[in-house]
Amino acid sequence: MGMTITEKILAKAANKDVVKPGDNIWVNADVLMTHDVCGPGTIGVFKREFGNDAKVWDKEGVVIIPDHYIFTADEMCHRNVDTLREFVKEQNLPYFYEPGTETYSGVCHVTLPEKGHIRPGEVLFGTDSHTCTHGALGMFATGIGNTDAGFVMGTGKLLIKVPQTIKFVIDGELPTGVTAKDIILKIIGDIGVDGATYCAMEFSGSTIDALSIEERMTICNMAIEAGGKNGIIAPDEKTIEYVKSKTDKEFTIFSSDEDAEYQAVYNYDASKLEAVVALPFSPDNVKAAKDCSDKKLDRSYIGSCTGGKIEDFVMAAELLNGHKVVIDLFIVPATREVEEAINTIKIDGKTLVEIFESTGKAHIAEPSCAACLGGPVDTFGRCNNGEVCISTTNRNFPGRMGGLDSETILASAYTAAASAITGVITDPAQYLKK
Amino acid sequence: MAENIIKGKVFIAGDNIDTDQIIPAQYLALVPTNPEEYKKLGSYALCGLPDSYKTRYVKDNEFETEFPIIIARSNFGCGSSREHAPISLGAAGCKAVIANSFARIFFRNCISTGEVYPIEAADVLADKFNNGDEAEINLTTLTVKNVTSGEEFSIKDLGSVKEVIEAGGIFNFARKNDMI
Fold first, then answer.
1. Are B57 and B49 in contact (CB under 8 A)?
2. Which ipTM score applies to this complex?
3. What is the DSSP letter of A296?
4. A434 in a domain, yes or no?
5. Residue A327 lies in a domain
6. Residues of A with CB below 8 A from B81's CB?
7. Contacts of A145 in chain B (CB under 8 A)
8. A319 and B CB contact within 8 Å
9. Which of the listed residues A267, A289, A314 is the one where a domain comes to its end?
10. Could you tell me which of A130, A283, A364, B26 has the fewest CB atoms within 10 Å of its CB?
């Protein structure tokens, strides 16, 4: 019996020839990522269990990316970044993207691949559920809590169960205005928010092959919204070229065997897909955008690890070029690199930022997680007054982007932009050139 | 986590109780390994539940709940990997959550930290109990009794994670097996 790509990576990490779903195995981690929300607690567990003088298992393996609560007056949040700073100094860690300095980057899941920390065939544990993003580059990546992270920090290992894999095969050409975000929302809508609990979600097919690396990241990023342990896409030439442009480190390419066993296989015809939204208060409450034009909006938000990458802003600007918007438009580039791109990439001779500013109601912030998860009350874009927000982010649980009386509607950058023009949920196709 | 009998009043919750409802993100600056902040996390446990929950899990200005057992439906703990979620429940005095299913990271965080027992049941026990009913969970016989109504139901065996729970979490399990 063959193995899936997820099983092959885990077998290598466990120094075994074969693993099968359900096996409990100790795997070696290549990278442990933490941020300002879970880093201080992870460090607390590490010191409690291994002692005050303990050293991390591998300095090169620990990557610390503060990104959640950066631009806030909340003193506890500053204290937490101070805790990270002291730990980095004490342990002499080389990879710390420090707020207030030139090394600050922004959202961890966009920073990791940009800075070469994501390499095919490796194992990444991160104290953030959207760590599953990085399966887009053919690695095993999953989110863990502080206690497990403290364990990895000290030992470089973790006991995990090999997941069953569900395969999603998407073939054909996407219609105008339909994006990776629509593909993953459609899948979550079909299988439900617990449809892939404990499972690996493997994506393949000609549509996936044709997607850019960033769009593949959008798909794997939301595997957790279906309960998935990891999302994964087998590396191809595009992946190899991307990774080589970011790092000199060697990496291993795996792919699933023809006779690998899957818990289930779902097939999609991309040409039949359409722009969709997830209405409050669950990511599986998915409806066609064109059927929701009676839903009035108060703001549109483009940002986060899911929808705040360079291509998300290119899509938004392509659609908004020459249009005014009728609701507030919040623009939060995920990282400094994305921020630089939106200030330099041009459409019709105008930078993306110039296009956003000429819509009349744009608010542009520095890179961070910002209002994607609400955060402290002074967070940029936070829905403090019962706003209805269409957003390129990943969750629309009650109170997710602010107050319990606010509502979040998940959508692609195209749909969020089109809806900002009209003030109601709008299918973007009519605004795009065929 | 070594207790075999867990007794107390139950709090009833619905499907897909996500980690933002268990502990909203504005409280995540609290660091669980700091004892003062651990206690404070307890005061916010389940404060993100919508207003439709007339009974609040922890009363205003209190740190602990009167409900050591939560009975929910499917996919309890979905969403974030924040360990603040099981910790806020544990800090509030929750001993066990019975649900039809759990989200993976939440379940794992319960096991690794030893804060609360995550127990799966096949029957929809949220329909068999009312808020404030007295329950008695027996982890040896794998049953839960509604002391108020007298009915008894079965709960699922914990399976392969039982060894980790019995050792008292991931660190003790690893030490017991000479891993660290």
1. yes
2. 0.96
3. B
4. no
5. yes
6. 38, 126-129, 131, 143-145
7. 81-83, 86, 105, 108-109, 112-113
8. no
9. A267
10. A364
